[in-house]
Amino acid sequence: MLTIKNLHAEVEEKQILKGINLSVNAGEVHAIMGPNGSGKSSLASVLAGRENYHVTQGEVIFNGQNLLDMSPEVRAREGVFLAFQYPIEIPGVSNINFLKTALSEIRTHKNLPPLDAKEFLRMSREKQKLVEFDAQLVNRSLNEGFSGGEKKRNEIFQLAMLEPALSILDETDSGLDIDALRIVSKGVNKLRSENNAFIIITHYQRLLEYIVPDFVHVLYDGKIVKSGTKELALELEEKGYDWLKEDSREKATTI
Amino acid sequence: MSMTQEPTIPLFEEVVNGWNKLSLSDGTKKESSDLRRARQSAFDKFRELGFPSIRNEEWKYTNLARFLRDEFTIEGWEVPGKAVVPDAGLEKKAGIALLDCYKVVLVNGSWDGRIGGGTLPKGLQLLKVAEARQDPALSAYFEKQAAWGNQHFANLNAALFADGLFIRVDAGVTVDKPIHVIHVYTSESNLLVQPRNVWVVNRNAELSVIESVVSGGAAKIWVNGLTEILVHQDARLHHTMIQTAGAGVRLVQQTTVHQHRQSLYNNFTITLPGADLVRNDLQARLEEEHTESHLYGLYLAAGNQLVDNHTLVDHQKPNCLSNELYKGVLLEQSTGVFNGKVYVHKDAQKTNAFQQNNNLVISKKATIDSKPQLEIFADDVKCSHGSTVGQFSEEALFYLRARGIGEESAKSLLINAFAFDVTEKIRIPEVEAHVNELISLHIPVNHA
């Protein structure tokens, strides 16, 4: 589904991704872990098409197409979804109208007929239930006055509504209490299927107890320095990230 | 000084000719001598002042020179409001879907007397100003001498007005549904129209008026409107103005509101792209204690449009509250002006006066001049003001686009959201929906 090859990117002329290689297939959940400043969120931003990130080298192929050539909206319509680390509050745009507009543009892009109001409402109710999202929040202004947990749950509700092929969860667990974490994870687990894939970016192993990944990658200084299975996450939890720094320093000196 | 300049303005000459013709015609024969004297003094004042130039502080950012180059003919006096039959599409364009209301249509400032939406309730009176000004019982509303100070256009209207809409609500009457006043301007040759409206809401009465301005025809039309509103003790008036006139129209509208004790006045002034020039002078004069005034404005300017909102909140007495929020969206090469004057007299202790003006400048070629002007002579007051000019939030734009919403739709959503603080205050849902639709309709596809 997604192939990242030798991806280099910079922001404000600072090199931030220094050669990422990653392959994600349908049905897989990949976790990307790493210390602060290692480039985890930058990777998410580059994949979603944030405009202040400049790709200087490498390529990203999504379902056979060059993802980097697409505008952010086309990426979304093609099936890439970024759950934001800090969802934006937009007073005056109602949550439900926002979703209606998004869904209708995605359906138009896929040459699907528009959903009628009744169908949309039915779908919205079903997904609210699935991800345990408060019906009252659906009719409010987008994220306005939502608590941190409500914002994150709204991201998962949007994910459920838009049914993307590839979901990138950018530190969705940060700032969540155990209850919210459990609800968010339950939602994601229900949405997992043979046809979609998830990239879960997190600093802590905690979230991975709820959403069990197929692969774990460790990002450090703009590169994936280690990949493994879910056991790697446990190892990181035990040892922290300091050993990575020493490892990479050793490598640097040996080269 | 002014005499050397004005004769070169064709409209000035036309106005002087119009005045001379008026003196000869029967147009004002049945009016009271006081009214005729008021016309004379207003005309003398206008003649002395001429049209304003940018040297005048109140017109500093609004240069009329390019609008005054065209020739205009003054509306006919002998048969005011002679039957111009406008394109039916125009009235329809102003229509507000699903709104239950009384509807009247004024064509070039004249009303044919027809009322849509049912029989008017007892205690609500609508009259043509062409009749009211000749009625000895109503003449007093038009007779005040030197009422318009140094205001160029108000004096011009006061001198030469012929028709308009007179509304009166009797004491204690709450009018059951809004009156929708549709102003249609249409002409095949350049025309100056000067509607004069007088609305009186008597003690403890309540009324809601929605005005829509639309235009058609190939010619240029200069509308110099003057509306005087009296909101008596304990009365409530909700007033919405939706300006959607098209290219070629120069709309100068002065609305002066006199508020008496414990009265409430809510104003919404919504200006959309179209007219070449829009200048609104909204003046709330708080003449007695414990009044409340809310002034909300929304201007969406595009093309080469110049939209100027001048507001004045005149706190004359203690214990009054005024609250003002104007929001502007400037597209393409448009120019916006906001001048919000709040004047608190020495006597007006315990005044609460709040003012806010926020602007979203979307194109690099658009400009806004925002000037809050607080003049406070009382010492125990709460007054605040703020003015901002900004662009789209890149973060918000990216968030919407990351959900598949195209850049243009995303911008349109954000403009509607920006306007929301004003539109949500319009407490008539059908009108709110109508305004939101107009906003979406008028956001050009290409902003740059």
Fold and architecture overview:
Chain A is α/β, with parallel strands linked by helices. Chain A contains 10 helices and 12 strands. Chain A has a single domain (2-254), classed as P-loop containing nucleotide triphosphate hydrolases (Rossmann fold), CATH 3.40.50.300. In chain A, the strands form 3 sheets. In chain A, strands 6-9-10-3-11-12 form a 6-stranded mixed beta sheet, with helices on both faces. Chain A has a 4-stranded antiparallel beta sheet with strand order 2-1-4-5. In chain A, a hairpin with a 2-residue loop joins β11 (215-220) and β12 (223-228). In chain A, α2 (72-78) crosses α3 (95-109) and α6 packs parallel to α7. The longest helix of chain A is centred in the middle third of the chain and has 15 residues, at 95-109. Chain B has one domain (2-442). The mean pLDDT of chain B is 93. Chain B is an alpha/beta fold and 448 residues long.
Attribute tags:
heterodimer, A: 255 residues, alpha/beta, Rossmann fold, B: alpha/beta, 10-stranded mixed sheet, 9 helices, 21 strands, 21% helix
Summarize the structure.
The complex is a heterodimer of chains A (255) and B (448). With 255 residues, chain A is of the alpha/beta class.
Largest beta sheet of chain B, briefly? 11 strands, mixed
How many strands in all of chain A?
A: 12
CATH domain fold name of chain A: Rossmann fold
In CATH's first tier, which class of chain A applies?
Alpha Beta
Q: What would you report as the Rg of chain B, rounded to the nearest angstrom?
A: 21 Å
The name of the CATH architecture of chain A is: 3-Layer(aba) Sandwich
Total individual domains of chain B: 1
| Biggest interface, residues from each chain | A-B, 31 and 25 residues
Order of helices and strands of chain A: EEEHEEHEEHHHEHEHEHEEHH
**Share of helix of chain A, binned:** 40-55%
User: What overall form of chain B do the CA principal axes indicate?
Assistant: globular
Q: What is the subunit organization of this protein?
A: heterodimer
Report how far the terminal alpha carbons of chain B are from each other. Answer: 42 Å
Mean residue pLDDT of chain B: 93
Strand content of chain B: 35-45%
CATH H level, superfamily name of chain A: P-loop containing nucleotide triphosphate hydrolases
